[in-house]
Amino acid sequence: MQPVFADPKTDFVFKRIFGAETRKPLLVALLNHVLELDGERRILDVQHLSGDQHVGVAELKLSIVDVKCTDGTGRRFVVEMQVLKVEGFEKRVVYNASKAYVMQLRSADEYPALCDVVGVTICNFNLWPDRDEGGRFKVPMLSRWRMQEQHGGERGLSQVQYAFLELPKYAAGDAPETLIDKWAYFFREAKNLNVVPPALSEEPFRDALEVARTATFSPEEWDAYERAKMAEQDARGALAVARQEGHTAGKAEAILAVLATRGIPADQATRARILGCSDAAVLDRWLARAVTAKAAKDVVDPP
Fold first, then answer.
1. What are the strands of the beta sheet with 46-48, ordered from one edge?
2. Please, which residues have CB within 8 angstroms of residue 40's CB and are 6 or more apart in sequence?
3. Reduced 3-state DSSP string for 119-172
4. How far apart are the C-alpha atoms of 213 and 248, rounded to whole Å?
5. pTM
6. Tens of pLDDT along 233-257?
7. Are 117 and 227 in a shared domain?
8. Cα gap 198→206, rounded to integer Å
9. Shortest CA distance to 78 belongs to which of 128, 41, 115?
């Protein structure tokens, strides 16, 4: 039986809600709420960046929306949904935001014109799982990160900042009250809902649910959604196998298994290169690429 609402954590649905030009108010609302902006600090509009301005890091994510704020600050936001925890994920987030900052530069005399970059990442896993003696997470569900002087605590160098929303830390059940709790509830539970619940009955949450309503999908869109879900499950299973094996052979086999499940044949040269690799970090990158690669060669030599 087809669900009433599609899972907004999948690449196809996430971009359908937050990556479409006609639905920019939903992305603006998400940014204002996650970044806790109010009054004159609120974002009023954003501009989706053209393809040549996007940061190309294939193994970084399953979903990404890259936008620039159109207010006076010109702040740039890299908004990501990451459903699987892969090795070195934190480093990749830092790299992605830093590259977005650097890519603004066109010549050496334009440093003063560089705009701040904020990386907004929604994680379907606990990025910081440690708890204190009272059982509380040391890092809350919504965390904000920026530079701080280590002796006096003065904040500065704010050009690159980060915000993380760790969905598994949600603890408000079926009665979310804060805006952040409602977004977490939306991302976690939308696929399980049969009707719009009272907690999500107001904008922008109701509008986001309507975009995720499967009855509005064309047959082609439904096929794309199902492929995205299968790719996620394949990657999740492959990562589990690789972790259980605990060695490079298991990771190499996992890469080939993901490609085979997705119906992508691996030519003899690519197969030999994957099986012959002994660098665990490289295999981790290739495994993440296998989830979205269009051809087997793109896993080892991304376009």
1. 46-48, 63-69, 76-82, 117-123, 160-166, 142-145
2. none
3. EEEEECCCCCCCECCCCCECCCCEEEECCECCCCCCECCCCEEEEEEEHHHCCC
4. 41
5. 0.76
6. 766 666 666 665 556 777 888 888 8
7. no
8. 10
9. 115
- For residue 66, count other CB atoms closer than 10 A to its CB: 19
Bridge-based pairing of strands 76-82 and 63-69 is antiparallel
Same domain? For 41 and 180 the reply is yes
In a domain, residue 6? The reply is no
| Same domain? 190 vs 223 | no
Phi-psi region of 218 (alpha: psi -120 to 50; beta: other; left: phi over 0): beta
Same domain membership, residue 15 and residue 143:
yes
Q: The domain containing residue 248 runs over which residues?
A: 219-300
pLDDT, tens digit (0-9, with 9 covering 90-100), for 23-58: 999 999 999 999 998 887 888 888 877 554 444 433
State pLDDT tens for residues 72-96: 677 888 888 887 776 677 887 888 8
DSSP assignment of 56-70: --TTS-SEEEEEEE-
Helix, strand, coil % (nearest 5) of the chain? Answer: 45, 15, 40
Beta bridge partners of 119: 78, 162
pLDDT on residue 52: 43
**Phi and psi dihedrals of 112, rounded to 5?**
-60, -20
DSSP 202-264: STTHHHHHHHTBGGG--HHHHHHHHHHHHHHHHHHHHHHHHHHH-SHHHHHHHHHHHHHHTT-
92 with 206, same domain: the answer is yes
Indicate if 93 and 161 belong to the same structural domain: yes
Burial classification of residue 208, based on how many CB atoms lie within 10 Å of its CB (0-12 exposed, 13-18 middle, 19 or more buried):
buried
Sort strands 46-48 and 63-69 into parallel, antiparallel or unpaired: antiparallel
Q: Judge if the upstream peptide bond of residue 3 is cis by omega within 30 degrees of 0.
A: no
Same-domain status, 15 and 157: yes
- Quick one: 129 and 227 in the same domain? no
